[in-house]
Amino acid sequence: DMAISASVQGVPMTSSDFSTPNPSTVSLSFSAPTDPQPPPQYASFPSKALPSPSSLTYAPISSPSAQSCVLTCHSDLLCDCVAYDSSASLCTKARGGCEPGGLAEAGTSSAVYVRPRDDASVGPVGGDDNTAVDNANSPAAGLGSGTFSFSGPALLLASALLM
Asked: What pTM does this model have?
């Protein structure tokens, strides 16, 4: 038996997202993934914004909440902090420029959330039975972001399908 637990931009993947030679020859099961590295507690700086201009910020993306914005940063190991503007529902990730003293003053609808860098959970994931792949900044633009977890022999099949 093979199992795939995956989501892309928060939407769980199903068998229709994959091409299989013959569904009766492969026993696949699908379930929602569990993040093997839950997000740590981010430091919150209300009424702050990222310094401007910064060459290390990403283009803002739509985000329904500050929590969703923090999860966007968490899915990208290169992300040091995020700025969330609740009035526009926009999230901006940044590498560097996240020092509290360097943050810009902003309105009450803005806040910056800084990832703790002493967090032991930041690092590669893996083991004998599972692997997680961070696809948050894949060069395949437009494919979205997500965490993929594969168990058992499904790792080989899914790896081949994702390449």
From this structure: 0.57
